[in-house]
């Protein structure tokens, strides 16, 4: 059967980051289900061969502009997103790179969609002006939280901006039987904090251990999360580091077997919500706080304000009501997913 149009997807893909890979997995799944199984999808990836093999799509090297230009020239639509692409906390190059891909697409008069993006933090004035200027040329904009919408408006974006659920929230875990022993999933990442921050985390984990919980560390970004998880795990006898498959569906399925999640990584919390597992988020970035607030469930603590005693006090009162929390999370997830994905409608109208 002939291809039903062609789509290029640009994002932080092919970097062994389980959260971003889950975003890509969900986008591809949605496109094949709602646009058509035979739609041609080309991903700009750091590891194109691995991406193509994993997701059964085409992929080109995200650093080779000759390949990127050829892919976009032959496509109908560019999807930019999801994830936190437009931010300058990790440096200015990220913004310039992703906007350059958008400008290539607009040069060839292709439709461009910002797909469930998280915007910011953007601190440099020039970057804010650049984002505002180019975003006004985009055909459709959706963001994953209200704060991102407000940021774009402050940057001068006049186009309509829709707030939608993160693509990962749409994923469904496979049914698996839970262990009789309570299990805590711990999703940590390195961050510029004083060493005593992780001592506080260890104190909280020791409290779970004393309560008889099994503690499992789940690294979402190789190698940095792996090294941190192994280091802390070594100081907590009885805890283990997850050593299963690291594709998005496998991590989501494993998350569904947990009873509670302590997560720094945004997509550890989103996967927990998708699986109906109660969680506490440690916010190192506004996106973590924004998600927990949008869910209207769970707890979020600023990374610089973590108080071990207060956290344990909260957990003591919360863990007796896990079933109620699960139902609250499931209900809120369903409410967020009720919004129609207009990005898919724009894509359909562009290629069919």
UniProtKB/TrEMBL annotation:
Signal peptide: none annotated. Residues 17-286 form the Polysaccharide pyruvyl transferase domain. It comes from the Bacteria. Transmembrane segments: none annotated. Pfam families: PS_pyruv_trans. Keywords: Transferase. GO terms for molecular function: transferase activity. PANTHER family: COLANIC ACID BIOSYNTHESIS PROTEIN WCAK (PTHR36836:SF1). This is Polysaccharide pyruvyl transferase CsaB. The lineage of its organism: Bacteria, Bacillati, Bacillota, Clostridia, Lachnospirales.
